[in-house]
Structures are given as structure tokens and as C-alpha cells.
Design goal:
Mean pLDDT: 87
Distance between the termini: 34 Å
CATH class of the largest domain: Alpha Beta
Number of domains: 2
Number of strands: 13
CATH architecture of the largest domain: 3-Layer(aba) Sandwich
Largest sheet: 5 strands, mixed
Number of helices: 13
Radius of gyration: 20 Å
Structural class: alpha/beta
Strand content: 15-25%
CATH topology of the largest domain: D-Maltodextrin-Binding Protein, domain 2
Length: 334
């Protein structure tokens, strides 16, 4: 499934014009995937402000029987918990399962008695409109709805830390800081000049695109690694290309890939980019089958997915495009 890409509409964008992107972001020109864009509104608050990693594990572990907030802590309200979370094809689901809910399991999972969706906007609406609700998703979806959702701080043993660009980059928002990626089919990049132009543009303008999409830009060191990986593909700086580019995968990375597409189309409308949201796992299935040129991912590719790509002769390069703070939110009436 793909959506119309209508995130950015600058009239005077040119390659490398970072100031234009920054101004657009500050002006609120970016609406994240159709959700209410209230990033400049006052952040909502709830009576519960922080969870320990242990409490988060107890809440989301497979087979968890916690159904009331006061089961996590006697000081919490006597309120039934309603859970919202990503589906099993989501890299966000995988990250929560592997890092918090079920880290010791051979095949990590979370509890399954929750309202699931691969669309983060559905999760936003579920938590915002349901008393006692909680859920988790990428930081940008919280930022775009922070007057309707309360973000919880996380205590990993060193005190409660709120999700933010600073805490994600410095590692203090642990263990929920995570990298975001695009995976590029090497043959597509070499043989399809439209793919090459799109990817080159994406990485050249990466910091500004991340900021415009309200993601956490890479550090200088990580950006250098991404540039080096791209240079290893041997691109020739293609411009003026025409053709189709197919992107699918993580709904978390979706806003960045769409922003890159819209901005490129201000210069070259002949590059036709379709961006879908099959989820990280679903995106890798399509990518390794040779059905897409680029796979958006909110986690690294796994061994079985690498094997599937190898079986189909799909060679790829991994490019980190941003950092994310997986954000746990609650309904502010809690």
C-alpha cells in the first residue's frame, strides 16, 4: 500500500539548499503521514510519567497478565490498560520484542492481546482516543501529536530519561534508541539511473531531510559511514534521469523516503518514486524477491532475510539514514 506523497511543497528548492528544508520544517510545512500536525503545541502530561525497563518488560512480555496500571506499581491509578502496538511485520515490533519484551528467546515476541496495526497513525489515534491506553512507535509520530499524547520517560537503571534528539544521540535514552536504514539493491542502483539519482539525492540532503521529517539526524561520524557505503556503489552522480523507483517497508522510515521523493521531484519530476508501508519484515520480503529497489527498515536485516536475498541473487548495501527514539506513550487522561 502507498500513499500520495504530499509532505513538502517548496517552490524554490535546489540540490544542497539546506536552509530551505530547515525553514520548511520550522514553519510546520511537514505533516507526518496524514496525522494532525501539532508539533508546536504544548506537550500533554499524564499522572504516570516514567516506567522502568523492567516494568515495560512486565507489561509487554509474552503471556503477560497485567491488565491494570496498578499491577505495575501500587502508586499508579486503578485503571484498565488498553494496549496498542505495531503488528508482527513491523521492525518496531521486532525491536521491542528483542530489546525489552522477550530478549532471551530464540524467536522474541511480545504479548499478543493488543490492538495491532502496521500504520503508526492508527496507533496514535487508538492511544489518543482510548482512556487508559498506552502504545509505542517512532519518535516523529509522537512529535506530530504531542498535545494529544503523553510520552513516558524510561529508567534503565540510571534514572528516568525522556525521549529526545539529544538523549537518543548520546545513548542515555536506553535501550530504546535505534538506527533507521534504507537498503538499496545494487543492481537497481547500477542499472536504473532513476534509482541512482533518488538515492544520491537522499543521502546528499540527508541531514536536512531528517530534520524536516522531524527525525534525529546522524552524527558526523555516522553520516561519514553512510557516505562511504554509498560511494562503494560507484555512482556517477546521475541527474536528469527518468524512470520508476519502488520503495517499501517500514512505516517509521516512510516519512523520510517520501520527503526525499517530493524534494527531488521539485528538480526532476521524471523520477517516479512509489513508497509503500508493508512494514520492515514485509518490505524485506518484497526486496529480497526482487520486487522493490529500496527497502525502508527500522531494524537491521536478519540472517534469514539475508539468505532469502542470496537465494534470489539480490545484493544490497545498508545505509543508515537517521536515529530514532522508540517512544512509549499514554493517553493523557491517565
Amino acid at each position: 500500500m502507498s500513499r500520495e506523497a504530499t509532505l513538502l511543497n517548496p517552490n524554490n528548492f535546489r540540490r544542497g539548499a539546506m536552509a530551505t528544508l530547515t525553514a520548511l520544517a520550522l514553519a510546520g510545512s511537514l505533516a507526518a503521514c496524514g496525522s494532525d500536525a501539532d508539533a508546536d503545541g504544548e506537550a500533554a502530561e499524564a499522572s504516570i510519567t516514567c516506567l522502568t525497563v523492567e516494568q515495560l518488560h512486565d507489561l509487554w512480555a509474552p503471556g503477560s497478565e497485567i491488565t491494570n496500571w496498578n499491577q505495575l506499581d501500587d502508586s499508579f491509578p486503578d485503571q484498565e490498560i488498553k494496549l496498542f502496538g505495531p503488528g508482527t511485520d513491523s521492525g518496531t515490533y521486532d525491536y521491542m520484542a528483542e530489546t525489552v519484551a522477550d530478549p532471551e528467546a530464540e524467536e522474541p515476541a511480545t504479548r499478543d492481546d493488543y490492538e495491532a496495526s502496521e500504520d503508526d497513525n492508527v496507533l496514535v489515534e487508538g492511544v489518543a482516543n482510548t482512556e487508559g491506553a498506552t502504545g509505542y512507535f517512532g519518535y516523529t509520530y509522537y512529535e506530530q501529536n504531542k498535545s494529544r499524547l503523553a510520552a513516558l520517560e524510561i529508567d534503565n537503571g540510571d534514572g528516568c530519561v525522556a525521549p529526545s534528539a539529544e538523549t537518543a544521540q548520546d545513548g542515555s535514552y536506553a535501550p530504546l534508541s535505534r538506527p533507521l536504514f534504507i537498503y538499496v539493491n545494487k543492481a537497481s542502483y547500477t542499472d536504473n539511473k532513476a534509482v541512482q539519482e533518488y538515492v544520491d539525492f537522499y543521502i546528499e540532503n540527508l541531514a536536512a531531510i531528517a530534520e524536516a521529517a522531524q527525525y534525529i539526524p546522524l552524527s558526523e561520524e555516522l553520516y561519514g559511514e553512510t557516505q562511504s557505503a554509498l560511494e562503494g556503489l560507484g555512482g556517477s552522480g546521475a541527474t536528469g534521469a527518468s524512470g520508476d523507483v519502488k520503495v517499501d517497508g517500514s512505516s517509521t522510515v516512510y516519512p523520510m523516503s517520501v520527503a526525499a521523493q517530493e524534494l527531488l521531484n521539485q528538480e526532476n519530476s521524471d523520477v517516479k518514486v512509489t513508497v509503500g508501508e508493508a512494514g520492515t519484515g514485509g518490505g524485506f520480503e518484497l526486496f529480497c524477491a526482487g520486487d522493490t529497489d529500496i527497502s525502508d527498515a527500522s531494524r537491521p536485516i536478519e540472517e534469514d532475510e539475508i539468505a532469502a536475498c542470496e537465494d534470489k541473487g539480490v545484493e544490497f548495501v545498508e545505509l543508515q539514514v537517521a536515529t530514532d527514539a522508540l517512544t512509549v506513550v499514554v493517553n493523557p487522561n491517565l
